[in-house]
């Protein structure tokens, strides 16, 4: 299981990595492993501004559909278009090519409330 230290984690198994004034969001290695083979990603919120913990899309696997929760307040700038044809990238490279969305974090985005790698590891090992 992979736990990069350059991202922050949520209790709902999303990660966020800030790069300048944008941030990438995806699901964790643990989440993709628990879900199984991802067959479809739906992000209908591009262009919207959402609050932390609001649903920004869904991820579909063979047996179920799971909601995706925004880690911090922000505007959804774009979705990873590559996933339309290759949703399996989320399984293969969840912290790299398998990112889900880019957001512009709001001025009040609370990154400090998120988990670091050690805290996230402790959460899933409970």
How would you explain this protein's 3D organization?
By secondary structure, the protein is of the alpha+beta class. It has one domain: OB fold (Dihydrolipoamide Acetyltransferase, E2P) (Beta Barrel), CATH 2.40.50. Helices cover 15% and strands 35% of the residues. It is built from three helices and nine strands, in the order βββαβββββαβα. The strands form two sheets. Strands 1-2-3-9-8-5 form a six-stranded antiparallel β-sheet. A hairpin with a 4-residue loop joins strand 1 (8-9) and strand 2. It is globular. The model has no long low-confidence stretch (mean pLDDT 96). One of its GO terms (cellular component) is cytosol. This is Glycine cleavage system H protein. Its cofactor is (R)-lipoate. The glycine cleavage system is composed of four proteins: P, T, L and H. Keywords: Lipoyl.
């Amino acid at each position: 299981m992979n736990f990069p230290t350059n991202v922050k984690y949520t209790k709902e198994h999303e990660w966020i990595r800030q790069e300048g004034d944008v941030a990438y969001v995806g699901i964790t290695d643990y989440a993709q492993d628990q879900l199984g083979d991802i067959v479809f990603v739906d992000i209908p919120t591009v262009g919207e501004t959402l609050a932390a913990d609001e649903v920004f899309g869904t991820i579909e696997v063979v047996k179920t559909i799971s909601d995706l929760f925004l880690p911090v307040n922000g505007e959804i700038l774009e979705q990873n278009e590559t996933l339309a044809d290759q949703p399996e990238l989320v399984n293969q490279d969840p912290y790299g090519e398998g990112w889900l969305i880019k957001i512009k974090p709001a001025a009040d985005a609370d990154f400090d409330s998120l988990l670091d790698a050690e805290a996230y590891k402790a959460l899933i090992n409970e």
